[in-house]
Amino acid sequence: MIHTVNKSPFERNSLDSCIRLSVKGAPILLIEDGVLAATRGTSVSDKVAAAMDDHPMFVLGPDLKARGLAEDDVADGITIVDYSGFVDLVVEHGTVQSWL
Amino acid sequence: MSDTEIEFDTAGITRKFMYVNRKAPYGTIYALEVLEAVLISAAFEQHACIVFIDDGVYQIKKGQDTAAVNMKNFSKTYGIIAMEKEDADEDEDMDMVWRIIVEKESMEARGLSRDDFVIDVEVIPSDELAIIMAEQEIVISG
Q1: In chain A, where are the structural domains located?
Q2: Using the beta-carbon criterion (under 8 Å), do B141 and A22 form an inter-chain contact?
Q3: Which of A36, A79, B13, B70 has the most C-beta neighbours closer than 10 Å?
Q4: How far apart are CA B62 and CA A31, in angstroms?
Q5: Which residues of A touch B134 (CB under 8 A)?
Q6: Class of the CATH-defined domain B16-63+72-141
Q7: What are the boundaries of each domain within chain B?
């Protein structure tokens, strides 16, 4: 199973619930407004870093770009993927749970 | 020309479906849309885990009265879902397992208890629910 989060962590609890309800090792992909969680130096950076002890963390590049965020703005350890990378992740991990 | 009858033969194909309810009712369409998907699942005799997380727990809160907001009180429909679950539990010929689950942490964070819900539920902590979620084949989220 792969988890996607598409809401800003500054506005909604979607990322919190995702972290609470995903098993160790399950990948998390940040998309749409969810990409805001991937940026460095924010009030949620520590939480995201802690989640990365248990989960491989990915962020969708086109959604970062659309919001004026560069690769340099992304916290260490988070992998940036494009749309085909998104597809590869889903193919590899099967079921998708979307935290809306 | 003879009548054409369309049959959906799902015999032998039973998958594990999970329905994740995370939104309060009435403010958005999410809750109602997931409920409709659950009812379709019942028609096709699939396994179903219906879970209530975060504000989704308010979907099955007792005492909803929507008359003054001109919307259908769909918490009553969960009574039908509970009946479907009973049928699934009792019918030995039917290979269908239904569970209705409330996440303990979400319920407690909102000052609610098991007695506040319109149907019988399993109250399960997040670490156990995470394992159940990871076992699903198809997850429909709202």
Answers
A1: 2-99
A2: no
A3: A36
A4: 36
A5: 1, 22-23, 26
A6: alpha beta
A7: 16-63+72-141
Residue B20 near chain A (CB below 8 Å):
yes
Whether the CB of A23 is below 8 Å from some CB of chain B: the reply is: yes
pTM of the model: 0.92
Q: Does the pLDDT of residue A17 top 90, yes or no?
A: yes
Residues of chain A contacting B19 with CB distance shorter than 8 Å: none
- Chain B residues near residue A13 by CB distance under 8 angstroms: 54
Nearest to B133 by CA among B53, B71, B55: B53
Tokens of B94: 């039917």
Q: How far is A45 from chain B (nearest CA, A)?
A: 22
Write the class of the CATH domain A2-99.
alpha beta
The interface pTM score, or ipTM, of the predicted complex is 0.92
pLDDT per position as a tens digit, B25-68: 999 999 999 999 999 888 888 999 999 999 999 999 999 999 99
Which DSSP state fits A48?
H
Interchain pair B136, A1: CB under 8 A: yes
Tokens, residue B133: 């979620």
